[in-house]
Specification:
By secondary structure, the chain is an alpha+beta fold. It has 6 helices and 4 strands, in the order αβααβααβαβ. The chain has helices at 5-26, 43-56, 64-73, 100-106, 113-132, 141-149; strands at 36-41, 77-83, 136-137, 158-165. A 4-stranded antiparallel β-sheet has the order 1-2-4-3, sandwiched between helices.
Length: 176
């Protein structure tokens, strides 16, 4: 049997995305506390996310969501990495409040700098796996916002999406 790259592309991208999720999970986290939720979309779920991006592109300043929706339609998998907001009891002041208790009382939905920092480190670990496996990817804020609107990672207050692809040109950078 002869299999071409086109024959194996989707399974290879699914395997790559699974390894990306492992890398995100094992990335270092503040105080060793894990507030992340991580998932993979394939097939019809990518189409649903793309449709939501198209719908959201009608809002002022979000026209580029339609372009990003078309980009992710070309992905073999989309990795979602989100964080719940939690007080870390470090009283660092990065959030603008002198103590974690002040932040929790006055602005409970304001992100803790450590939660969003952990999200960024996890995303960096995930995309490094895609690079090591020579898969194209791009971190997308827009698709993360759409995933939030769809409640794809319940309990999360911030999500970033990473579509992965393996074609002759990256649909995420070689775009109009």
């Amino acid at each position: 049997m002869i299999e071409t790259q086109n024959d194996t592309r989707n399974e290879t991208l699914r395997q790559t995305a699974a390894l990306m999720m492992n890398a995100a999970r094992t990335a270092p986290k503040a105080r060793g506390i894990d507030h992340l939720e991580i998932a993979m979309l394939t097939g019809v779920d990518i189409a649903r996310l793309s449709d939501k991006l198209e719908e959201m592109s009608q809002a002022p300043g979000r026209g580029f969501f339609a372009r990003d929706g078309e980009n992710i339609r070309q992905a073999g998998a989309v990795v979602l990495i989100g964080t719940r907001y939690a007080v870390m009891d470090l009283n660092c002041g990065w959030c603008g409040f002198p103590t974690c208790a002040d932040k929790a009382r006055q602005a409970p939905l304001a992100p803790c700098a450590f939660n969003t920092n952990d999200l960024g480190i996890a995303v960096g670990s995930a995309v490094s796996v895609a690079a090591d496996r020579r898969a194209d990817c791009r971190v997308m804020y827009s698709a993360g916002v759409a995933a939030l609107a769809m409640d794809l990672l319940p309990g999360c207050r911030a999500i970033l999406a990473i579509p992965v692809s393996a074609t002759g040109k990256s649909p995420f950078f070689d775009r109009k």
